[in-house]
Here is the input.
Amino acid sequence: MTTFHAPEEYSPSSALNASTSGVKLGSLQEILGFHLRLANVAVFQDYQATMAGLALTPKQFAVLELIEENPGASQIDIANCLRMDKASMMALVNKLEARHAIERRPSAVDRRRQELFITEEGVVLANKAKTLRSAHEARFKERFSPEELADLVSYLQRIYATRTTPTLQEDDAD
Amino acid sequence: MTTFHAPEEYSPSSALNASTSGVKLGSLQEILGFHLRLANVAVFQDYQATMAGLALTPKQFAVLELIEENPGASQIDIANCLRMDKASMMALVNKLEARHAIERRPSAVDRRRQELFITEEGVVLANKAKTLRSAHEARFKERFSPEELADLVSYLQRIYATRTTPTLQEDDAD
DNA sequence: TATTGTTATACTCTATAACTATA
DNA sequence: TATAGTTATAGAGTATAACAATA
Here is the structure.
């Protein structure tokens, strides 16, 4: 259990950057998704290194925060928010529930639903995670002026906000 | 569709929110990796829908292009460039080779190495893929002015180019 | 008939470790 | 001793499909 598993994107961090190995990027240089992916990998790796002790993946963390922020939300609410499948969300919620970080409560209004709530234990975990993450975040944010950062975020939102979804199959980031 | 029965903290979806169905993002709103990931997912999904017929994942495509652009490169060269493990790269290269899109040739200089080359068949595939991708790319790029696009790319590079790698120790991640 | 949750299953991607053959 | 490639294996994440209870 001391093995390092990277569920999403990980690669050994011997590399410096994409062009230092003498490999020319060519037309790849102009591909938005390419830069997006490498940025994602870089952030993910730093996240992993920073949060190693907590065993909380970015998605789990996101779900935890969303439940904290939206008590009573359903699994499907959260899944939609994160563009995830309901079955995948099920597994994720199961893990958080097994850690007693959240709990399911049957809805009184709609008996098909389970409402999700963060537990006190979950709040402790979330706070711990947030503290660690703030250092991680700072490492990247300090590379930008406040204006640049605001622009970057708004550009990213522009990419994913409005959508004329063709069809969907999932996987992320690769 | 998704009705959200939150007992106390329900708020109608603000247009600012990246997400759907009235779920509040809360502190997640300020997390760079969160926006990065959603942008990545959006681009990936569009890529999938666009390139459905070709059965060429973004990574496979990238490897194909890099080999085309850098004839004779080794697997490790490519792997480093894309931040991938050499074993993972192996599997990827195997697939491209099985499709006769690339080929391995033993290096005359260093007999440990296999030099990678794109085949004529590979060039055809790459060109077909590039044609499809240009439509996909345009769908996102048209949301930006030339200046904005240049800024976005340079910001993304700023995220992954220089690396402050905080000692990636082995530990369990999930 | 549609939706929420659920389970089971299979598939894909990736890392780890061990090995070989070279250097 | 280190490096490039290779193989086998195991783990995580995800989607798909089916099902039950409820709307």
Remarks:
- The radius of gyration of chain B is 21 Å.
